[in-house]
Amino acid sequence: MSIKTVGVIGAGTMGAGIALVCARKGHQVMLLDANQAVLDKALVYLESILTKDVEKNKISEQEMTETLELVHLVSEIEQLADCDIVIEAVPERLDLKKSIFSQLSVICREDALLLTNTSSISITEIAGGLSHPERILGFHFFNPAPVMPLVEVIRGKKSSEENVEVAYRFAQELGKVPVLVTDTPGFIVNRIARPYYNEALRVLGDHVAGVEQIDRIMKLAGGFKMGPFELQDMIGIDINFATTKSIYTDFFHEGRFKPSRIQQQMVQSGSLGRKTGEGFYDYNK
Ligand SMILES: NC(=O)c1ccc[n+]([C@@H]2O[C@H](COP(=O)([O-])OP(=O)(O)OC[C@H]3O[C@@H](n4cnc5c(N)ncnc54)[C@H](O)[C@@H]3O)[C@@H](O)[C@H]2O)c1
């Protein structure tokens, strides 16, 4: 399969980065968001990253212009009809993802690959009841997408082996390191990472230590690049909370995955981390 045009749905934290990864490899990118302000912000982000590449002599000004010209900002899902691959990166909600994939199933060609960047939701459930579920797979980038090398390629119950191979090769072609995963809650990385966030939130809730202290200790003693609270702010506390809830539900409420009330209240209050300027840390200072 020759991949020319890639659709990216959702131009937020992940979608904008995924669009950049694809455009840098010469693909035409149709970047869709329901919110025009997010699309405008995504363009500013792309320009700022590529400008840094020019300043560091990694690319020429002409290459920057050519890469930017590959990214088309769109507002209607029908504009993705000719895409060879579509990567969905809307918020971590099953109803939203199901609705998007049911529209894509009608709009896109039968041989187009339909990928979801979900952190935790069952691929099998997203594809359930849709026509041609063999072309629906998980394709999970890590944040920030242009920097992090890993992509989890997740095989849903009805994903075909042929499409798994195409997705695997596509990840390699993007310069990423793919890992094949079967469809289980949280896949590999988010399942293993849950205790890092959850236990830190319990330590905070038990007043054992504060946010900055916990982050500092995990970096100093554990060798982590970022502490659990810095990471939640970068990921988006809403996205992190939704991921924990989904993993907890899909593991039939095993206590070790139980979500935290602290995180829930931060989401309820609109303190979502860096993207809102305030989370466990204040970014407006
Ligand atoms: N944030 C992370 O660190 C991270 C890492 C890996 C995977 N993910 C996953 O990627 C997905 C997106 O996460 P994010 O952090 O980029 O979210 P985000 O909230 O930053 O961005 C989501 C975007 O989707 C848009 N959107 C919502 N409904 C839409 C629709 N119907 N059509 C088009 N656009 C729509 C929103 O306007 C928003 O801009 C989630 O499934 C998340 O679990 C996130």
From TrEMBL:
Sequence positions that bind NAD(+): G10, A11, G12, T13, M14, G15, D33, E92, K97, S119, N143, K275
Record-annotated membrane-spanning stretches: none
UniProt keyword Transit peptide, yes or no: no
Keyword Oxidoreductase: yes
InterPro entries tied to this protein: 3-OHacyl-CoA_DH, 3-OHacyl-CoA_DH_NAD-bd, 3HC_DH_C, 6-PGluconate_DH-like_C_sf, NAD(P)-bd_dom_sf
Molecular function per GO: 3-hydroxybutyryl-CoA dehydrogenase activity; NAD+ binding
Residue ranges annotated for the 3-hydroxyacyl-CoA dehydrogenase C-terminal domain, each copy included: 186-283
Site feature location: Important for catalytic activity: H140
Superkingdom of origin organism: Bacteria
3-hydroxyacyl-CoA dehydrogenase NAD binding domain span: 5-183
Gene3D superfamilies per record: 1.10.1040.50, NAD(P)-binding Rossmann-like Domain
Keywords annotated in UniProt: NAD, Oxidoreductase
Pathway: Lipid metabolism; butanoate metabolism
Entry's Gene Ontology BP terms: fatty acid beta-oxidation
PANTHER family for this protein: 3-HYDROXYACYL-COA DEHYDROGENASE FAMILY PROTEIN (PTHR48075), 3-HYDROXYBUTYRYL-COA DEHYDROGENASE (PTHR48075:SF5)
Record-stated family: Belongs to the 3-hydroxyacyl-CoA dehydrogenase family.
Identification of the protein by name: 3-hydroxybutyryl-CoA dehydrogenase
